[in-house]
């Protein structure tokens, strides 16, 4: 079994996948689209990744505000969640993604990635942080 992690943005989706033991998350790619509402190719690519990696569950970053309220991005994310569930038939778990982009940017800075290059990778790394957070939580809370 593998789990797919997604960082859903207005023009990009960062993807990460777990290992088969559900211990670690690895970055896969960033899907870019021209318009926020053009999701057909994005969904098709996600379906291809699901088939390739035999994914059985999806963890979708949920962009709550720092004060724990839900804004417009949360509504868009819920709509995307419903689309994913309909298209894939898989369970989609919403996972609090607060500060993942900040953490991803900090990680890249510490790794020596140049500022102008960070934007190319931030969504994929944020997806890794989202998925890794879920995997760590799951390993501590799921009955052994």
Description:
This protein has helices at 40-53, 72-88, 100-110, 115-141; strands spanning 2-8, 12-18, 25-32, 55-62, 91-96. The mean pLDDT is 86. It is globular and about 40 Å long. The chain has one domain (2-141): Nucleotidyltransferase, domain 5, CATH 3.30.420.140. The protein is built from four helices and five strands; from the N terminus they run E-E-E-H-E-H-E-H-H. Helix 3 crosses helix 4. The chain has 144 residues and is of the alpha/beta class. The chain is 48% helix and 25% strand.
CATH architecture: 2-Layer Sandwich
Determine the number of helices (DSSP H or I, runs of at least 4 residues): 4
Count structural domains: 1
CATH topology: Nucleotidyltransferase, domain 5
**Radius of gyration over alpha carbons?**
15 Å
Secondary structural class: alpha/beta
CATH superfamily: YqgF/RNase H-like domain
Residue share in helix: 40-55%
Order of helices and strands: EEEHEHEHH
What best-fitting shape do the alpha-carbon axes yield?
Answer: globular
Q: How many DSSP-defined strands?
A: 5
Query: Regarding CATH, which class?
Result: Alpha Beta
Reported for the largest beta sheet, the result is:
5 strands, mixed
Contiguous uncertain segments of 5+ residues:
none
